[in-house]
Amino acid sequence: MPRRPPEATAEHVDVLIIGAGLSGIGAAHHLQSAFPHRTYTILEARDTIGGTWDLFRYPGVRSDSDMYTLGYRFRPWAQAKAIADGPSILRYVRDTATEAGIDRHIRFGHRAVHAEWSSEDARWTVEVARDGEPVRLTCGFLYACGGYYRYDAGYTPDLPGIERFGGTVVHPQHWPENLDYTGRKVVVIGSGATAVTLVPALAEQAAHVTMLQRSPTYIAPVSSEDTIANTLRRLLGARRAYPIVRWKNIALGTLTYQLSRRRPHIVKSAIRKAAVRALPPGFDVDAHFTPSYQPWDQRLCAAPDGDLFKAIAKGRASVVTDHVKEFTETGLRLDSGTELDADVVVTATGLRLLALGGIRITVDGRDVKLPETLAYKGMMLSGVPNLAFTIGYTNASWTLKADLVSGYVVRLLRYMDAHGHAQCVPANDDPGVTEHPLIDFQAGYVLRSIDEFPRAGSRPPWRLGMSYAHDVLKLRYGAIDDGSLRFSGAHSSHDAVRRSA
C-alpha cells in the first residue's frame, strides 16, 4: 500500500490519550510524573473533565466503591465519606487535573474517529472530529482511556405501549435538569446500581417511589463512612493513612469476593439477614431481595447506610417484582394484572457498551476487527502496535486497575527507550490458547455487547485479570519482555535521550 504523504498540519505528540475522565486524568498524571519532557495531549469528546462522573447527573448519583480504592493511588481521598456522591468525585477528578496542570493538555470537543498505524513511520495518525471539521494528529503511542460506556444513549428494552403513557419517561443517563418530581408518583424500572441509588434519593421528595424489577439483585447495606479511615487520618494525616486504608479495603473486598465464589451460601445468608433486620416485619425478603444467581455473578449493589431499606421501612418506597406487560395512559400494567399508577417512569434498564470508544483502528492499511484480536494482559491488542487501553475491574474499584495499567504503560515506554525500540506489538504464537469473552461477567449490559469487544485467551498473558494482588505482581513488577511482545525499530540517540529525560 502506498505510504501516506506527510502532512505539515498534523501536530505530533509522543503520547495521545483518549478521554479526560477518571482513567484519562490518572494516565496523564502517571505519564508526566515519569516523563516530564515527553509530550502528550488528551482528546475529550465532551466539553468538560469528568467522563462518567459528569455524564450521570441523576438524583443521588454516587459510587458503590469506596473512595480509598476508587481514588487515585497518588492522591489521597481526604473527605469523611468513603461512599461519595457524584459531585464530590467529579471535584476530586477535576482538582487532580488542575493541580497537576493536566487540564492544559486537554482538547475539548475533540472526538477521535479513526486511528491509523504506519509501521514504516512507527506512528499513529489519528483523525478527530471537532465541530464537524476534521483534525489530524500523530503520536508514537496511543492510549485509550474512555472506558466502555456508550455516552450518547443508554439501553432501553422494548416497552409495549410506551407511546400512550401520559406522564414523563426519562432514562437516568439523560436526566433533564428541570424535571420536577416533587409530590409525584414515580416508578423506577430496574434493580441494578442505578435503580438502587435513585429510589431513596427520589423518595425524599416524591409522593411515592416504586422499584419495579423483573428479578431481585443482591443489595448490601454499607456504612457511608469508614471509621478506621477517619481515625487514622486524624492520627497520621491523610497521606500516611491513605495507603493503609487502601490496602485494608482491598483486602476486605478481595476476601468478600473470594468467599462469594467459594462459599456463596455464607455470603447469601449474611446479605439476607441484613435485609431482614433493615426491613419491616413480615416483608417478603425472599421474593424481592433474594436473587436466583450466586453473589458476584453480577456486581453487588451497595446501599449506603441502608438508605434503600430505610425508604421502604418509612413507606416512601416499595418494591414490586414482576414484568411489564404494557404501558397505559396513567402508568403500567404488569403480567400479574397489577396496575401501577405513575406520573414519572424512570427506565433504569442499563447501559450500552462501546469498545475503544468506537474508534476505527487500522494497521498498515488493514482495518482491525476487534473481536478477531486477543487482549494482551487486558490492556493491549494482538497485532496492534503501540496501543493500550483501560478496562477496570468488575469485582473491585475501576481505578485500582486503571492505576496499574498506567504504571505498566510507563514501564513499557521506559523499556522501549532503554533498548531503542520504536514499536511494540503483542503476538500470540501459542496454538493452545483458546478464545473466551474478554469480560467474564453475567450482567445484562456486558452480555448484550461483549461480542463486539476483543477476545480473551484461556491462559496468561491473554486474560483480563480480576485480582488486584495478582495484577500488582504481574503489572508492576513482572518482566516487560515476556515472550509475547515483539519489539522493533530504533529511535535516534538524541530522541532516546530526550524521551527518557
Automatic annotation (TrEMBL):
The keyword Oxidoreductase applies. Gene3D superfamilies: FAD/NAD(P)-binding domain (3.50.50.60). InterPro entries: FAD-binding_MO, FAD/NAD-bd_sf, Flavin_mOase-like. One of its GO terms (molecular function) is flavin adenine dinucleotide binding. It comes from the Bacteria. Its cofactor is FAD. Keywords: FAD, Flavoprotein, Monooxygenase, NADP, Oxidoreductase. PANTHER family: MONOOXYGENASE, PUTATIVE (AFU_ORTHOLOGUE AFUA_8G02570)-RELATED. Belongs to the FAD-binding monooxygenase family. This is Cation diffusion facilitator CzcD-associated flavoprotein CzcO. It comes from Actinoallomurus bryophytorum. The lineage of its organism: Bacteria, Bacillati, Actinomycetota, Actinomycetes, Streptosporangiales.
